[in-house]
Input
Amino acid sequence: MPEGHSVHRIARQFERHFQGVPVAVSSPQGRFAPGAAQLDGHRIVRAMAVGKQMFLEFDHGLWLRVHLGIYGAWDFAGDITAGGTGEASTASIGAPRLTRLRMSEQEQLAPDIQSFPPEPIGAVRVRLLTEAAVADLRGPTACEVQTADEVAASIAKLGPDPLEVDATEGEEQFVAVVGRKPTPIALLLMDQAVLSGIGNVYRAELLFRARLNPFTPGRELADGVVRELWRDWTHLLRIGVETGRMYTMDDEDSGEERPEHWVYKRDGLPCLVCGTNVVMEELGGRKLYWCPVDQA
DNA sequence: CATCGATGTTGAG
DNA sequence: TCAACCTCGATGG
Output
């Protein structure tokens, strides 16, 4: 479920609380026991997010690759901080508070844990445990140990992630690929081999913000329009990573009663710009929302 | 309390 | 094209 911004935030949590210290790796559920044994006791030296995938590098050269899929989630607990760079630690001067934070497409604080480490809840595929913090992974689509070469191969299959690649190179690559595809732009934006990290919410919102017809073939779009899509995705992704929310309306301070999004999940409701009813259609097995007038 | 559907991807057919 | 993966909040009876 999470789109790219969440994965960057999760990687940030690992950098902040798990990097540089020995990590006990286990698989309470059992399904990942062999992989856990390969990593157990080593230190995490790097956490990297590329699109919707996260890669944790350990000090002996092996990596953990995780993709949350549609309902995977990380639960962090212990002496941890929640959220963005500017937020203060929850640890007080005295005993650390035992915060519990669930990170999936949404982030939510759960009631503090009573003892550390807490018992695993449900089917925990992998548990990463340090002296101060614990991370439990549940329901992922992918969770595997990789060599550095395998990591490189995984990343090579992915289109550019604006926060991971050189901005100019990423933009040029995206423009070049879109420019030769007959595929509807709505499908290209969701194609992780073309551009990394966009999911169904950001897809619909980016297309509306650009006032683009979702069915326009990539190669029929002017380069400038495609560049603007890249730049807007970069913009929205940055906001998402900093806030933990999928802000797409650029006016957080306007009325409290405003909808969260321009068109996503607003089929049958009036377009916020022109009043025409937003429509929904299945495309490539996913629901696509757009305004038939503003995005004609 | 049962059922549905989801911000995703893979792989079978 | 569609089921499977196997979680969990929202919805309805």
DSSP finds seven helices and twelve strands in chain A. Residues 1-3, 6, 52, 67-72, 104-106, 141-142, 190, 192, 199-203, 246, 264, 286-287 of chain A lie near DNA strand B (CB under 10 Å from a C1').
